[in-house]
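Supplementary Methods. Inverse-folding protocol.

Structures were first reduced to a discrete structure-token string of length 235. This string, shown here, constituted the complete conditioning input.
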């Protein structure tokens, strides 16, 4: 039984460091993590448009008109052409089949989706109201982002490297050994996610009368890096 347990532990340890080359001399394997959190300065919004008609052309024309109305309004939100993707289009017949196999047409459906990067994050609620007023039938996704993503990932990666070094040095000292040079660096994993905080985006009518709030919880964008490294040990 002891032999089986020892073998299982050896296999588990081997699997966890299989991607990292190991030296034949005494060494230590560590994993470092780094994290940087910032407030987002932009939000990517996907808007879905759908129109129905008895024929495909009127359905397409109607959905094009709704998308064009949105595109014409984007300048008022500081959105430029480079911040917009609006090239998709699908048109198809909506068909049901009865129990006895008869084909029943419900008309034609034209669909488009538009992706917009809004840099005026504090106007998100106003922007969404405008999009729905233009004819969007669904808000597909909201993704908060930072325009400094590359620099932030670099900072998180440096924190992961420092974390790995500190862990290796601390463990070596605890066992009465010295930390030698790094032997190899294994996988580097990147991840970012939105951690939500409490920010309310209000909406006010032109008359200045406050109407019921559309409450959106603005996230903190979190960039996380992890790294595996092998250090040699000095006896």
């Amino acid at each position: 039984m002891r032999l089986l347990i020892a073998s299982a532990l050896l296999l588990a340890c081997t699997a966890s460091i299989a991607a990292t080359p190991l030296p034949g001399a005494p060494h230590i394997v560590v994993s470092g993590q780094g994290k940087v959190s910032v407030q987002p300065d932009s939000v990517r919004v996907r808007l879905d448009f759908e129109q129905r008609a008895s024929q495909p052309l009127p359905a397409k024309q109607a959905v094009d008109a709704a998308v064009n109305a949105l595109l014409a309004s984007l300048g008022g939100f500081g959105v430029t052409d480079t911040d917009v993707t609006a090239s998709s289009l699908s048109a198809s017949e909506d068909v049901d089949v009865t129990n006895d196999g008869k084909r029943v047409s419900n008309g034609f459906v034209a669909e488009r989706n538009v992706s917009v990067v809004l840099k005026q994050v504090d106007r998100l609620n106003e922007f969404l109201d405008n999009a729905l007023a233009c004819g969007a039938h669904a808000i597909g996704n909201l993704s908060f982002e930072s325009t400094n993503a590359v620099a932030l990932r670099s900072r998180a990666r440096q924190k992961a490297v420092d974390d790995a070094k500190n862990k290796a040095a601390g463990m070596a000292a605890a066992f009465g050994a010295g930390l030698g040079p790094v032997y190899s660096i294994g996988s580097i994993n990147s991840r970012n996610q939105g951690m939500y905080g409490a920010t309310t985006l209000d909406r006010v009518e032109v008359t200045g009368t406050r109407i019921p709030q559309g409450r959106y919880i603005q996230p903190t964008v979190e960039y996380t890096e992890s790294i595996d490294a092998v250090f040699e040990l000095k006896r």
